[in-house]
Design goal:
The complex is a heterotrimer.
Chain A lengths: L3 H11 L9 H12 L4 H11 L3 H8 L13 E6 L2 H5 L2 H12 L12 E6 L11 E3 L2 E3 L4 H9 L3
Chain B lengths: L1 E5 L2 E5 L5 H7 L23 E5 L8 E4 L10 E3 L3 H15 L16 H9 L22 E3 L9 H9 L6 E3 L6 E3 L14 H4 L5 E3 H5 L8 E6 L8 E7 L2 E7 L12 H5 L14 E2 L2 E2 L2 H14 L2 E4 L6 H11 L4 E2 L4 H16 L7 H5 L3 E5 L3 H4 L1 H10 L2 H9 L7 H8 L6 E5 L11 E4 L2 H15 L13 H11 L4 E6 L5 H14 L2 E5 L5 H7 L4 H9 L5 E5 L9 H10 L2 E6 L11 E4 L8 E4 L4 E5 L12 H4 L8 H11 L22 E2 L30 E2 L46 E2 L26 E6 L13 H6 L5 E3 L9 E6 L2 E9 L7 E5 L12 E7 L2
Parallel strand pairs in B: 1-5, 15-16, 15-22, 17-18, 17-20, 18-19, 20-21, 22-23, 23-24, 27-28, 30-34, 31-33
Antiparallel strand pairs in B: 1-2, 3-4, 3-5, 6-9, 7-8, 10-11, 11-12, 13-14, 13-24, 25-26, 26-29, 30-35, 31-34, 32-33, 32-35
Helix pairs in contact in B: 10-18, 10-19, 16-17, 16-18, 20-21
Chain C lengths: L21 H6 L4 H8 L4 H10 L12 H6 L12 E6 L8 H8 L1 H14 L4 E6 L4 H16 L15 E6 L9 H8 L23 E5 H13 L1 H7 L7 E7 L6 E6 L4 H8 L9 E5 L33 E6 L4 H15 L5 H18 L7 H11 L9 H15 L1 H10 L6
Classes of the chains: A alpha+beta, B alpha/beta, C alpha/beta.
Chain lengths: ~150, ~900, ~425
């Protein structure tokens, strides 16, 4: 079941389009913002709310990188693995995170605190390497400042 | 026609089409995947690449996709250009990267478009050394098998299923080289035309799950051109068998009728032929007996006289006519219930004597305004529903044409069209599966449906009778405006509501709108049975009750589906001798004194007349086994030797049916002296087929009834449309071979499509409108008006004997809009003839006072509804 | 840096990175262009002509002439409505970080550009399609839009002119192909972002089937200034025949990676050495991609070419987005090519065979090569694939873009590839 707040937010976005189905991606992101990820049940709920089939909604959801169809930890660490970050030391950053958090890309720490994922170029290449944690951008990373960056994400 | 230079050779091409279509129509071997004549071009697979040159001096050229390039006058392309050749081979290489080495175990092998295209491009060496991506397959139900590893990501499946057929439970998931085509979760594909996926899919991702249970390669099957027996539309099929078992049904292209597609009931309902309860020997007085003894008994009873014959709307014209000949026209009775027969004859009269033309299914697709009165097409005439679904694209097509977008540019057209739909008005007692594309729906009791129709006619032409108390009906005015403003308006109605008024109202509308008029009919030969004539069924019952009858011969007809149980019981008890011919046990066969095993469509030849009035011939796929015989061979005068004899006699006795002889060439037809082989030339195992019985290979059976042979030997040439057992061409082993049988790809078959239309509109001369307008429906206090409700899976007698169809069959239920009952509640429906128990389904769209009841497989017969009854919660 | 030239795109931006408020924007001369357009009775076609005359070219990578594109939109009362303006803020080309700056630091410039562009094409509705990861830009744009609506610079009857424009911000679901004009339209329609075939073109059949123009953020940001100061002024900003300024950037092991607004036509060398400070101590220059991942490598001999829409053609490359990615002599070219190819392979939408199949194959081949499992014949396979990805062979420009670094790396750094194969490993690891 979608919450009243989720529905309210979806309907605000829906006003921006001439067809209901057009708000599908916004709806998926809204639900994800509230729950961390989009479950099969949420796909069904969104489908029902928009008058679409679950198959059609999931077809859209599985296309997009920022829509998580599997549970994630409390915080999502997205490490840029594109060319400029790669040149400036992505491998070291990744190795450091692997060691610190004990997980590979696509995995979640056992305490559910962090999920680590690769992400494509974050558009701050002059401050590479970079990563995002939830909505926050962290740049000019090195093994030293990563730890303090992650500190505040409980 | 435009001149396009292909490899420097001038070729005629249709300038409204694309180059791929033009090249294929000219017989060039140009490989392709994602394009389909019914779906248009999207440019996904890149397989159809050719080199295009600016002019004669351009020696470099550039690679273009022929499916995405218009066949404009003066275009110059090369298919043989080395760069294009290498590119096309590179595309196959790209597809083969992830394609499993499944050919030996893949059902598609031998009729696989991917195999054909691979050979055509010449790619034959694997350079890829990494792993192939794999998937977990889904269980999509009993009809269609899912094997995703084989997918080449051509997108045909979703374009067909989602865009063309309107299904919303199949789509593409994920992206890059891991695309997955399937459902959100495992489950039966909901769309009633899902079976076409097995022909649409160019590889073995979607295959016929029923065929899998008794698999044989295409090259090993024996085929015959046939006609579907599961509704009255007469879709053309090819039936394939091996070793006496019917293996599968495939679509047989008919440009006017079914085109490229069948419905799932028609494709998968065939397994009733293989049902182990099939009658194989004559049974006399409950003892299996010899043919000789059965014939002796039969001849005896006929000679004794006081014999009547009851025909059947699901038996062929030849079978009905043979029975009529043997018992005499005066003693021949129509096998339809009186009321049903009356309705069918009414539709025939209207189409035969009125100015309205009855359209082909293809013409229905091209209609630009449709008014459906009283018919749940998806369940009653499924293939017509698919055509109507396409028709709503016609009117918006005009805006697309203005934008100069070629109509074959599938996604361009859809993006331009968005959700615009042409007018489609559906008026039925309960919701239908076409409602999602309707402009407006109107759900009411049959009498009110009729009143709407009469009102529409009056709104179109004030000389048509007005409906009292409904003179200015907004919906009627809207429908009238839509029909009037259309170039090809169409009215569809039929016998489903069991209402004369509905049929007459539809006729009025068609007359007033100068529209085409289509009527559905209940069974595959309802029209044929009506035209063969015969006294009403009730008269047969009366004659038996009055003691005038000694022997009743019942042809392929379960009388318990025609009249109340108690009545049929008493009639069959009263008849001294009951002879029944049929395929499978039913309540009537239980009462037979002599039971004769009748051949199904797969083991007989004959003619059906479809609801379009098209006479079409079907041919046996194999000789009947054991003592099974085509019904007309059990009941015939001695001097009739073969089907042609029956047809000749029929033409003489019923001159209005003489034209049916032209439905197919006679048994004497030959191509350069040779018969048409039923099997592809690589058919194997003929010698081994009966080795377990006798190691000496028996003589190949001779087919006296047709120009087809039971062999792989015969003419290699393409037969005329009515005699095509399978589609195959050098280099084209898959169903794509159909291209080579059409003059222009996607158009009529060379030499014309199969079937003879019998209804010819009469010129307008003082057309008279029907004027018996029913009063408005009045709901009753403690009773409900029960109307029949049909199910594509569940209402057809024969297909229910196919395990897959049985699995999908809808549980008979009552559909109602009432707060008195709840979903799934069990209720008792009480009618004059008894009390019946059903679960309830709440349908909020239904009108007050009306309940719809499943017919066909339920104990409630079409005879008893519509009728008034009580509905109460069951104890 | 050096030189006295106008920097219309960045001159208002605060060094501390804080956003230019609506008030600050107006004080610095903002929202004068839209006032000029609406209050002096300029017609949409007149605005279009001015932009055409300025020879403003798209700064998203393709370089199509903006004014010409605008002129393709059908005008008049019988046009199917609404007409849409879509601003492409889906900056995801690896190595590209210019639109981020414009949206985070001076969002009102973008809004004003959208208003003027919207007017020029008679748009009723405008969308800013923003990549989902640009959370700060989203926040600041949302606030700027609210501010503009509050002042009635957006919405109905702007400045009492009768012109109305609704403007909405849409955050993407995250996919590189959303940056492709027609893929973007499908994404904005709430669908999978597969691109569309052209024809029909967006001005004819665009968003929801209606006339639509899609322009890059930087392109739109140029528009108010062209209106304010004229086409001739704009033309004069550039050093070569392409007018205007451009945001140029450098990433990689240079002393000062960064982003600078410079005259169009500034040389590669000037950007690399004067603004980015040249290579860091300890590394030497080997090559660079001039404008994001989908451009061809250029090397030392090309450094004096101008960064504009045509000059880099001499190096068999192109300006692309104008943000350069530098390859140093301590970074493996095979690894870099592998990384780039992995990006493209991962972002393939899955529609056309050469892309979804070929990129995956190339990705695996290069990864294996980096890991020491390269085989003789791999380079032939890769070269054959780059030919399969040529423009016209594929459905959209993603694969042809992917071909550019691969084919140029094989041209300029072939020995490195051969060494990986010969030595069964990466000499740098």
């Amino acid at each position: 079941m979608l919450t009243a707040e989720e529905i309210r937010e979806i309907e605000i976005e829906a006003e921006h389009y001439p067809k209901r189905e057009a708000v599908c991606i916004d709806a998926l992101k809204i639900v994800q913002r509230h729950r961390g990820w989009v479950s099969d049940e949420s796909v069904r709920d969104i489908a029902e709310h928009l008058g679409m089939s679950a198959t059609d909604v999931d077809s859209i959801a599985t296309f997009y990188n920022l829509i998580f169809r599997k549970p994630v930890g409390r915080h999502v660490v997205m490490v840029c693995d594109s060319v400029s970050c790669w040149i400036m030391g992505y491998e070291r950053i990744r190795a450091h995170l692997r060691e610190r958090l004990g997980i590979e890309h696509g995995q979640t720490t056992s305490d559910d605190r962090f999920t680590m994922l690769p992400i494509v170029c974050l558009g701050c290449c002059d401050h590479a390497p970079a990563m995002m944690v939830d909505s926050d951008l962290h740049t000019d990373l090195n093994p030293q400042n990563i730890d303090s960056a992650l500190e505040k994400y409980k | 026609m435009a001149i396009v230079y292909v490899n420097d050779k001038p070729c005629e091409m249709n300038p409204e089409q694309n180059l791929l279509h033009g090249c294929l129509s000219n017989g060039f071997k140009l490989p392709y995947f994602c394009w389909h004549p019914a779906l248009g071009s999207v440019g996904a697979c890149r397989q159809c690449a050719v080199k295009q040159f600016r002019d004669e001096n351009d020696s470099h050229g550039k690679i273009v996709m022929s499916c995405m390039t218009p066949a404009a006058e003066g275009t110059r392309i090369s298919i043989a250009d080395p760069e294009a050749v290498a590119f096309r081979a590179g595309i196959i290489e790209g597809l083969m990267l992830n394609h499993p080495h499944d050919c030996p175990v893949c059902d598609e092998g031998g009729e696989c478009h991917l195999q054909d295209m691979t050979v055509m491009t010449g790619h034959d060496y694997r350079r890829y050394e990494f792993e192939k991506r794999t998937f977990r397959n889904q269980n999509l139900g009993p009809l269609v098998n899912h094997e995703m590893n084989r997918c080449i990501q051509c997108y045909r499946c979703v374009r067909y299923y989602h865009d063309y057929a309107g299904g919303n439970d199949l789509n593409a998931f994920a992206l890059r080289d891991r695309l997955f085509f399937g459902r959100a979760e495992d489950g039966v594909l909901e769309n009633e035309f899902s079976g076409n996926l097995v022909e649409i899919c160019p590889t073995g991702v979607f295959t016929d799950k029923t065929l899998k249970q008794h698999y044989a390669r295409k090259w090993d099957q024996q085929f015959a051109p046939s006609v579907c027996v599961h509704c009255a539309l007469g879709c053309n099929t090819d039936a394939g068998e091996r070793y006496g078992t019917l293996r599968r049904i495939v679509n047989r292209y008919n440009h006017e009728v079914n085109g490229y597609f069948l419905c799932d009931r028609g494709r998968f309902g065939y397994e009733f032929v293989n049902n182990q309860r099939r009658f194989r020997q004559p049974v006399l007085k409950r003892q299996v007996t010899s043919v000789a003894s059965a014939r002796r008994y039969l001849d005896e009873k006929i000679a004794q006289g006081r014999v009547i014959g009851i025909g059947s709307p699901r038996a062929s014209l030849e079978a009905n006519f043979s029975l009529r000949t043997v018992v005499g026209a005066d003693h021949f009775y129509c096998g339809m219930a009186d009321h049903e027969g009356k309705l069918v004859r009414l539709t025939i009269e209207i189409l035969g004597s009125g100015p309205m033309r009855t359209p082909t299914l293809r013409e229905i697709e091209e209609s630009d305004a449709v008014f459906i009165l009283g018919e749940d097409l998806t369940n009653v005439a499924p293939r017509m529903a698919l055509s109507v679904r396409q028709s709503v694209r016609q009117q918006p097509m005009e805006a697309v044409k203005k934008l100069k977008i070629p109509l074959w540019l599938d996604f361009g057209v859809r993006d331009a069209m968005q959700d615009a739909k042409g007018p489609l008005y559906i008026a039925t007692p309960h919701g239908t599966r076409l409602d999602d594309v309707a402009t407006a729906t109107f759900h009411a009791a049959p009498d009110d449906l009729a009143r709407l129709g009469f009102a529409v006619a009056h709104a179109l032409d004030s000389s048509a009778p007005a409906v009292p108390q409904a003179d200015d009906w907004p919906l009627a005015n809207e429908i009238a405006r839509a029909l009037k403003g259309a170039k090809k308006p169409l009215v569809i109605s039929g016998t489903s509501c069991s209402s004369e008024a509905v049929i007459q109202a539809a006729a009025n509308v068609a007359m007033a709108a100068d529209a085409a008029l289509s009527f559905t009919a209940p069974e595959c030969n309802s029209i044929g049975a009506a035209l063969t004539g015969g006294n009403p069924l009730s008269a047969a019952f009366q004659a038996v009750r009055d003691g005038y009858v000694d022997t009743v011969i019942i042809l392929e007809n379960d009388l318990y589906r025609r009249a109340p149980h108690a009545e049929v019981d008493s009639v069959l008890k009263a008849a001294p001798h009951v002879i029944v011919l049929d395929h499978l046990p039913n309540p009537t066969t239980e009462k037979a004194e002599l039971l004769l095993p009748a051949g199904t469509f797969a083991e007989s030849d004959g003619t059906f007349i479809s609801s379009e009035g098209r006479a079409q011939r079907f041919f046996k796929v194999c000789m009947p086994e054991d003592e099974v015989l085509a019904s007309w061979r059990w009941l015939k005068p001695d001097h009739w030797q073969n089907l042609d004899d029956v047809l000749r006699a029929m033409a003489e006795a019923l001159p209005e049916l003489a034209a049916i002889r032209d439905a197919a060439p006679s048994s004497k037809f030959r191509i350069a002296g040779a018969k048409i082989p039923r099997s592809p030339h690589r058919e194997s195992g003929r010698t081994a087929a009966l080795v377990h019985i006798n190691i000496s290979e028996p003589k190949t059976p001779e087919d006296l009834d047709s120009a087809l042979s039971f062999s792989m030997e015969g003419t290699p040439d393409q037969p005329p449309a009515a005699l095509i057992p399978f589609f195959w061409s050098p280099s084209w082993n898959s169903i794509q071979a159909v291209n080579t049988y059409q003059k222009e790809v996607g158009g009529p078959l060379r030499g014309g499509d199969a079937g003879v239309r019998l209804f010819k509109p009469s010129p307008k001369n003082g057309q008279t409108y029907f004027s018996a307008i029913p009063a408005a429906f009045q709901p009753r206090e403690s009773e409900w008006l029960l109307v029949p409700m049909y199910h594509i899976f569940g209402s057809d007698e024969l297909s229910l004997h196919a395990p897959a169809i049985r699995e999908l069959a809808v549980m008979p239920h009552v559909a109602i809009n009432s707060d008195e009952f709840a979903e799934d509640m069990e209720v008792e429906v009480t009618l004059a003839d008894g009390t019946f128990r059903f679960p309830v389904r709440i349908h909020r769209e239904m009108p007050a006072g009306v309940a719809a009841v499943s017919v066909g497989s339920s104990p409630l017969l079409a005879v008893q509804v519509p009728g008034w009854g009580k509905i109460a919660r069951a104890k | 840096m050096t030189g006295n030239f106008d920097k219309p795109l960045t001159e208002r931006m605060h060094p501390d990175g804080s956003v230019v408020s609506l008030r600050a924007y107006e004080l610095a001369g903002g929202y004068q262009a839209i006032r000029k357009v609406l209050r002096t009775g300029m017609t949409p076609m007149a605005v279009t002509e001015e932009v055409k005359e300025a020879n403003l070219r798209g700064r998203g990578g393709a370089g199509f002439q903006t004014g010409v594109k605008w002129s393709f939109v059908p005008r008049g009362k019988d046009v199917p409505n609404p007409t849409y303006l879509v601003v492409n803020g889906d900056e995801m080309e690896p190595g590209t970080f210019k639109d981020r700056l414009l949206m985070e630091r001076d969002p009102h410039q973008l809004l004003e550009g959208a208003m003027v562009a919207g007017f020029a094409i008679e748009a009723d509705i405008a969308y800013i399609f923003l990549r989902g990861e640009y959370t700060l830009a989203a926040e600041r744009l949302a606030r700027a839009i609210a501010e503009a609506y509050e002042r009635q610079y957006l919405g109905k009857n702007i400045f009492g002119s009768g012109y109305s424009l609704e403007l909405y911000l849409h955050l993407s679901g995250g996919r590189y192909i959303c940056g492709e004009e027609t893929g973007l339209l499908n994404a904005l329609e709430g669908k999978r972002a597969n691109p569309r075939s052209k024809p029909p073109f967006p001005p004819s059949v665009g968003l929801f089937g209606k006339p639509t123009i899609v322009n890059n953020v930087e392109t739109i940001c140029c528009v108010p200034h062209i209106i304010n100061r004229g086409a001739t002024w704009f033309q004069g900003l550039g050093r070569t025949k392409d007018g205007g300024t451009k945001l140029f950037g450098v990433s990689g092991k240079v002393k000062h990676p960064g982003l600078w607004e410079l005259p169009m036509g500034t040389t590669v060398r000037e950007i690399l050495e004067e603004h980015a400070g040249g290579m860091r101590d300890g590394v030497k220059f080997r090559g660079l991609l001039p404008g994001g991942a989908s451009t061809d490598f250029i090397v030392e001999e090309h450094l004096d070419l101008a960064m504009d829409f045509a000059s880099l053609g001499k190096a068999a490359s192109r300006m692309g987005t104008g943000t350069m990615i530098v390859l140093d002599d301590h970074t493996c070219p095979v690894g870099m090519t592998s990384n780039l190819t992995h990006f493209f392979a991962r972002e393939s939408c899955g529609f056309c065979t050469p892309c979804w199949s070929g990129l995956g194959w190339a990705d695996r081949t290069l990864k294996a090569m980096e890991e020491g499992r390269g085989r003789p014949g791999d380079l032939d396979k890769l070269e054959f694939q780059t030919k399969m990805w040529a423009p016209g062979n594929t459905f959209c420009a993603l694969a042809p873009g992917a071909a550019e670094p691969v084919q140029s790396a094989l041209k300029h750094f072939r020995e490195d590839f051969e060494r990986h194969i010969r030595e069964h490993g990466c000499p740098w690891s």
